[in-house]
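The data are passed on as follows:
___
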Amino acid sequence: MTKTAAIIGGGVIGGGWAARFLLNGWNVRVFDPDPEAERKIGEVMANARAALPMLYDVALPDEGALTFHGSIAEAVEGAEWVQESVSERLDLKHKVMAEIQGASTAPIGSSTSGFKPSELQQGAPDPSRIMVAHPFNPVYLLPLIEIVPSPETDEAAIAAAEEILTSVGLYPLRVRKEIDAHIADRFLEAVWREALWLVKDGVATTEEIDNAIRFGFGIRWAQMGLFETYRVAGGEAGMRHFMAQFGPALKWPWTKLMDVPEFTPELVDMIADQSDAQSGHLSIRELEKKRDKNLIAMMRALRQQGNASGRLINTHQRTIRQLPRAANPLVTQDRVVPVDWTDLNGHMNEGRYGQLFSDAAEEVIAYVSADEAAPLAGTSEDYAARGFNYFTVETTTKYLAETHAGERIVVHTRITEGRGKKLRCLHEMKRASDGEVMATCDQLMLHVSLETRRTCEPSDEVLKKVEALAALHAKEN
């Protein structure tokens, strides 16, 4: 049964929330009095549809329905989750919370970056259902959500929030205590203050500061965070040595974190002019697309290593992956071509066709080796763990049409030979939108014992499935 989320406030953050839920199969009901809300959310959705599917090697769930409503009460009707993303005005948030709770008993997450949950709960009909659920832009790509409850927030509501957010690929981080600006924004505020001083004092330009981050510690933070990075910096002696070595530097007058530069018109002009010189040649939409592609490529690299946000995506993918079902042909891949699969010509690199057809073969192996007690849980890794697998000994690939980043593709696979140790597949890669065949691959595999590293006969159960597929695929459609 399709679930429903209500989004109250459809700006950049609200639109990102709508995209995250919608692209994970939820129906989304939106309230925003802005007459431009549908257009603005539509533009965010266009970016999200191009970006989020590239993180995964399987198709996302079918989109839910996106609807716009004339009142808060109408928007929250039937919602399992309500996300408030209105302007950072406490009086407005109090008014919105009261309207939501006048029509819904669903848990409410606030996107606020500054207010504490106890402040949001003041005067609320049911404070136990209100908490902070602070995201990061773009919400449809960045997984961190800071969950901040107050002592009055119901534990069941918090648990429900964590389950819901995890189900759409997010990472809910529970903040132990109420604190202004939560956790992440306090770091950002510290870096922001120091950056303002560096610009004001003429030490660095906006571009030089950005370069210091993106070519240096920003990359380390993306995969290892702060404390683990410094643990490594301590060498073999670890964190204790690092603290002993660099701890005294904390007393040196390196930073101005306890002081704030005066926001004079001159400082604003200096920063704005430098920022224009740095990236004013690109529109905001172009910058968003550049940002999204960079994030996708970095997170996909972390997926391969199974670290940080990459591990989270791998975990989420396992919850939305579906094993092929017996059909003529088998659907062994259904996915979007990611940006890191393209080359200088702008189309999919030929090496990635091999990856795609290899992934398709892995799904065939998963199907024929799946445990009858859990037919949708099998993977080729599971079969390898049992000491067996199929090894490819020969492939012939034909490239028939260009394939570009962002295109949704499917692979249809037929077993053309399935007897004894042999498993031969014919894969057809097709554009999902029109069914055009873009490439084919004839692949011969042999069954192997991973203990002896030699060919061997598959079990009767596996061979039975292989032969059944070969017989099914021998029939004309």
Remarks:
- The mean pLDDT is 94.
